[in-house]
Every structure is written in C-alpha cells, then in structure tokens.
Amino acid sequence: DTGVSQDPRHKITKRGQNVTFRCDPISEHNRLYWYRQTLGQGPEFLTYFQNEAQLEKSRLLSDRFSAERPKGSFSTLEIQRTEQGDSAMYLCASSGWGQGSSDNEQFFGPGTRLTVL
Amino acid sequence: QKEVEQDPGPLSVPEGAIVSLNCTYSNSAFQYFMWYRQYSRKGPELLMYTYSSGNKEDGRFTAQVDKSSKYISLFIRDSQPSDSATYLCAMSGRYSSASKIIFGSGTRLSIRP
Questions:
Q1: Which of A76, A111, B70, B111 yields a CA-CA distance of 20 to 30 A from A32?
Q2: pLDDT of residue B38
Q3: Which residues of A fall within a CB distance of 8 Å from B45?
Q4: What angle do CA B49, B54, B60 make, to 5 degrees?
Q5: Would the CA dihedral through A53, A57, A61, A62 be positive or negative?
Q6: Which one of A94, A99, A104, A107 makes the best mutation probe of the B interface by having the most chain B beta carbons within 10 Å?
Q7: Looking at residues A100-115, what average pLDDT do you find?
C-alpha cells in the first residue's frame, strides 16, 4: 500500500495522560500536514511540515500539542495532559510531486480516533 | 462567518438521479478548489481538484468553480448507492506552494436504491 498510513487507528486514554500518534506519508511527498476533525465538521488545519521544517502552526495547536518530523519522513503528533475536548479524529495528509499529483493535492490517511475519558 | 459555507444536509436522492452539491466562500485569495469524499470513520478521499474558475469532468463527476460569485459545485451523474458518503468542499490560497486547506463542514449524501 503506497498511501498515507497512521498508527494507531484508535486510542482511548484517560484525562491527563499523554498520547502520541504516528503518520507515514506517501514516500516521495515532502509536505506533511496534521488536521483535526470533530463529529459533523470538516477537518481543521493544525500544522504542516516541508521536509523536517515545521512551517505553519494553527492557533488550535495549544502548548500541549507538539509535532515533529525529525528526518523529513514520518511525523509524530503528541498531546500532553489530554483533556476531554481533545477527543476527535486526527488526520494526516501529505503532498508533493509524484504519482501524477501536484504539490497542492493533499492525500489523507485513515486517521487516528482519540477518545479521552 | 465561516470562510467556507456548506449545507450539511442530509441529502437523500433516488439511485440514478443527478446530485448537486454546493459551497460558497468569502476569501477571494482562494485559488485551488477541491472536493473530498469521506465514508463513515474513514479519512477524506480526494475526488476532484481544480485551479481557478471553470469546469472539470472526471467520469460521473463534474466540478464547477465560479470565482466571480465565490461559488463552487460538484455534480454527480447516474448516482449509485456507493456514492452515499459525506462530501467535503475544500480550498486553499497559495498558488506557488502547497498550503493548508480550509474545509466546509460537509454534506451528508444518501442514495436510495
């Protein structure tokens, strides 16, 4: 499978715990994005990387959230001291030239569904 | 006011009907317009991608962009039960490099056999 993959697919945690999600983009894509989606809403942008550089962060990304892409390949999104309001689907997307796509076409992974009890 | 407005539906039509889905937007800087399909508990799947105004056709799907009216549409011909999903319009502003996408809230579509 050459698409975007995310792990885990589901995570249930207790309030106050830390969680970490992983995203593996399409291999030749140099841009990687994180979005959050709550029920009945479209995805909301959180942050994006070009290679290993984090170029933009949304105001939605509070100090409890941190994202990394250390070698310009996979990325991790960590949420510290989780709150019930963090419950959502966390989506990763990638873009880049290759496989007939342009730099502006973002392809999404299946998401990680987080439930904070 | 949201940057992108989309009727949440739900929209229910019989199999074989033509479906029309629409979005309006307020930011004139948007240059790239997309439609994603999302099945329940899955990630969004890119359906159509257009740049600036005009029409684009791909099989049973046609995307239209009218930048003067800040209005985009997706038409689905010969609709099938497998088309039942949430359809998200989306747009981005940069023309020279990739940027964050702004999504509508999605329209839930149901095709009745």
A1: B70
A2: 96
A3: 108
A4: 60
A5: positive
A6: A104
A7: 85
